[in-house]
Amino acid sequence: LITMQEDHINNGRLKRDTITLDDEAKAVWVKFYNSTEIMQCKGEALEFIKDVSGKIADNASRLACLFHVLESESDTIGDTISKKHMVMGCEVAEYYLQESLIYLESSELPIEFKQAQDISGRLMSYAMKRKQDPSTIKDSLLWNEITHRNVQRLSRQNKKELGAILIELEDADHLLDNRKVGKSVIYTINPRLVAGGAL
Predict the structure, then answer these.
(1) What is the pTM assigned to this prediction?
(2) Considering only CA atoms, which of 21, 28, 96 is closest in space to residue 56?
């Protein structure tokens, strides 16, 4: 049986202390919130785990509050959460967000998405190499363009499987477009993959 002390009750209800973020902590939270929101967009890393990533910034602030309370040096808890604790909250939240991605990749992601993810990673590496070292470009294409033949070579998929995967990559904006040049089909790799990573 748990009894509440009188000083914890107000008009029959539990008293609640409100703890806010100081200005520096709020700036950290806003930056974390914005970055995770962007990464939920189509074609970005958190696209398929919005149920987790959509709540991650709020959970980071809750974690920061816990760190703030646990590290309080007196019985009186301060009314603002510091930048230090907000950073700690974001770091823990980010860790578990990445764990969610790993779990999804290994267990829940349908096979066609896993194949698309694998090829997207190969395309990202291909484009990154060409961008960082233009001397590796042996064709007349831009650094983020690739022929259908080279996509086949990178993917090692049969024609039917590859066709479905390419549609998936185009729907997710990992491939922006394709055009026919002579007998070849040229695909444009989304340059944001090189900057922000694949699925």
Answers:
(1) 0.51
(2) 96
